[in-house]
Write a structure and sequence with these properties.
The chain has about 325 residues and is an all-alpha fold. The chain has helices at about 5-20, 25-30, 35-50, 60-85, 90-105, 110-135, 140-160, 185-200, 205-215, 215-220, 225-250, 260-270, 285-305, 310-335. The chain has one domain: Orthogonal Bundle (ABC transporter involved in vitamin B12 uptake, BtuC). It is built from 14 helices and no strands. It is globular and about 55 Å long. The protein starts with 5 loop residues before the first helix and ends with a helix.
Length: about 325
């Protein structure tokens, strides 16, 4: 039996993902058991929410939307990293927090310069990580843990162990609610569209899918693996910075507390949305639904008085079930 050359295999992968333009939930539909899990969780959340005081209120809906926005924007960055194949960043929260500090510090120069400074700083830091991982195959877990520790030290230095205060009131533009909807929601929806277009409609996105699905074939075909992974990390860093800026604007300050929680929530949102941690499968639209699910569960548990440990346990179990079903789906597709 004749086997396809690595070049042909990588080319087929790129072309197949080039045509993969439909949102994940629409594309897989009823055949994806992970979608049924998300639907079941949504039904349970509605039932439990009906008996939870203040859950079905306008103010709580705005709170869920705001939480979805900050989690979802960071999760979009994690999606790009994960699609590249077996990669994850455990420095999401630290990157967002330090970027938020840069944002607040630079507000004296205006809102746009502050956002640009924060996104540029994060993009450079994550881009270096991506290049090291892509070119030298460094372990992403160990590397990002180390970077997270370094960023924690940098953040502590910038804040002198205290909360960083904004240099001006320009951040209030990020707290506006046009049509009664927080600005962060519009930002999340717009960025979801842009990231989806990047992943399914550009050469870089097709290369990410190809590298994630079969790195060996991509290398054999001469595809720019290191450049692809580095670019994925660059865009991811910029998205983490935007998430940090919105978080800082919402709280009027930012500290390193809660960094680990954002990292967990962002990764949980990506996995709950069905993106494969093995790489080569996933979309921004799936991550959007995953972020909404994680934010809703967190809000519901918080209103019912659940501790942080309980919230983490419930979200962890949800992610575990979705990942296991995704593994089963992946094995079936190979047979």
């Amino acid at each position: 039996m004749t086997r396809a050359a690595p070049e042909q295999s990588a080319s087929v992968t790129v072309e197949r993902n080039a045509d993969d333009r439909l949102p994940g939930l629409l594309r897989t539909g009823l055949r994806d058991p992970g979608n049924w899990v998300l639907f079941a969780v949504l039904v349970v959340a509605i039932i439990v929410g009906a008996s939870t005081p203040r859950f079905f209120t306008i103010e709580n809906a705005k709170a869920i939307c705001a939480s979805t926005g900050t989690i979802g924007i960071a999760a979009l960055g994690v999606t790009l990293i994960m699609v590249c194949g077996g990669l994850a960043s455990l420095a999401v929260g630290e990157t967002a927090a330090v970027s938020g500090m840069v944002f607040l510090t630079m507000l004296g120069h205006g809102l746009v310069p502050a956002l640009l400074a924060a996104t540029l700083a994060a993009a450079v830091v994550t881009g270096i990580q991506g290049w090291v991982i892509g070119a030298w195959r460094a372990n992403p877990i160990i590397l990002t843990i180390a970077v997270g520790s370094i960023l924690t030290a940098v953040g502590a230095r910038m804040s002198s162990t205290k909360a960083v205060a904004p240099a001006s009131e320009a951040f209030e533009h990020l707290n506006k609610t046009p049509l009664g909807v927080p600005v962060v929601v519009f930002a999340l929806l717009g960025l979801t569209v842009l990231v989806q277009l990047l992943m399914s409609g550009t050469r870089l996105g097709r290369l990410m899918y190809a590298v994630g699905e079969n790195r060996a074939a991509a290398v054999a075909a001469g595809l720019p693996v290191a450049w692809t992974v580095a670019c994925g990390f660059v865009v991811a860093g910029a998205l983490m910075a935007i998430s940090g800026a919105f978080s800082a604007a919402s709280s009027h300050t930012i500290t390193l507390e809660g960094a680990n929680q954002l990292t967990f929530n962002a990764i949980a949102a990506v996995l709950a949305g069905g993106t494969s941690i093995a790489g080569g499968f996933g979309s921004a639209t799936r991550t959007l639904f995953g972020a909404l699910m994680i934010a809703t569960i967190s809000d519901l548990l918080l209103l019912r008085g659940a501790e942080v440990g309980t919230q983490t346990l419930v979200k962890g179990l949800l992610v575990l079930v979705v990942v296991l079903l995704g593994h089963v789906r992946s094995r079936r597709s190979r047979t």
